[in-house]
């Protein structure tokens, strides 16, 4: 049975996503076949990450992995780390499950659920080494800005989940959203911008180039990378 992208019906928090597109037959088959291997059914209970991955290792959470290019590439490059991808779109989930099986990756798990609720309820304090937010939906229209994922309450949830030595990495090709990220995250007292207040870091060499980045470049957009660490 395919997992459902559960959304709490009582919540009045604006969602940072809408369900778009349809899965291909191949993606649906991948979900049917490989969800028991790579999928994590989230019911609002704390996630036992050592049990889920079958080991203790550095943990990386990618919020909104899209088609999974970045998640898959990093998992292949860093077998000593565990990667938890959180995504609500079935097409991307199916693609990641199929590719993880094909590549024989054992350090990927997927949660199909609202990432904010996963951080609220599923990830314990200091349980995560890295959080990745790459090319999230910029919601460019002013009336939709409240839907943007990067908001003060989300920043606080991420801080709570990060280890004291952890890191939050972000990237976007939408300059107004980059400025919004800076405004929100520089204002969070529990985070430090590693590039200094208002600063962006050079593009990390180990961040895979995804279709979202290539599309932004084709459109003439600059790419903005940010890095934050917990305040010591």
TrEMBL record:
Record Pfam families: Methyltransf_4
One GO CC term, this protein: tRNA methyltransferase complex
Biological or metabolic pathway of the protein: tRNA modification; N(7)-methylguanine-tRNA biosynthesis
GO MF, any single term: tRNA (guanine(46)-N7)-methyltransferase activity
InterPro entries (alphabetical): SAM-dependent_MTases_sf (IPR029063), tRNA_(Gua-N-7)_MeTrfase_Trmb (IPR003358), tRNA_methyltr_TrmB_bact (IPR055361)
Binding site for substrate: 141, 173, 210-213
Residue numbers binding S-adenosyl-L-methionine: 62, 87, 114, 137
Annotated keywords: Methyltransferase, S-adenosyl-L-methionine, Transferase, tRNA processing
UniProt catalytic activity: guanosine(46) in tRNA + S-adenosyl-L-methionine = N(7)-methylguanosine(46) in tRNA + S-adenosyl-L-homocysteine
Assigned EC number: 2.1.1.33
NCBIfam families in alphabetical order: tRNA (guanosine(46)-N7)-methyltransferase TrmB
Function: Catalyzes the formation of N(7)-methylguanine at position 46 (m7G46) in tRNA.
Family affiliation: Belongs to the class I-like SAM-binding methyltransferase superfamily. TrmB family.
Name this polypeptide is given: tRNA (guanine-N(7)-)-methyltransferase
């Amino acid at each position: 049975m395919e997992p459902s992208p559960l959304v709490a019906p009582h919540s009045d928090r604006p969602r940072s996503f809408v369900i778009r597109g349809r899965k291909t037959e191949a993606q649906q088959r991948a979900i049917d076949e490989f969800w028991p291997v790579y999928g994590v059914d989230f019911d609002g209970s704390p996630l036992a990450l050592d049990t889920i991955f079958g080991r203790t290792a550095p943990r990386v959470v990618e919020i909104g992995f899209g088609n999974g290019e970045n998640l898959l590439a990093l998992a292949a490059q860093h077998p000593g780390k565990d990667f938890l991808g959180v995504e609500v779109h079935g097409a991307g989930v199916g693609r990641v499950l199929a590719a993880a099986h094909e590549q024989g990756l054992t350090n990927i798990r997927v949660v199909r659920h609202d990432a904010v609720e996963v951080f609220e309820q599923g990830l314990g304090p200091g349980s995560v080494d890295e959080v990745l937010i790459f090319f999230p939906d910029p919601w460019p229209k002013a009336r939709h800005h409240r839907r943007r994922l990067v908001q003060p309450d989300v920043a606080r949830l991420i801080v709570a989940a990060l280890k004291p030595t952890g890191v939050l990495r972000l990237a976007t090709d939408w300059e107004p959203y980059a400025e919004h990220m800076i405004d929100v995250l520089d204002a969070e007292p529990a985070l430090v911008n590693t590039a200094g207040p208002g600063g962006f870091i050079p593009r990390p060499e180990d961040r895979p180039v995804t279709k979202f980045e290539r599309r932004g470049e084709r459109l003439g957009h600059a790419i903005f990378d940010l890095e934050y660490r917990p305040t010591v």
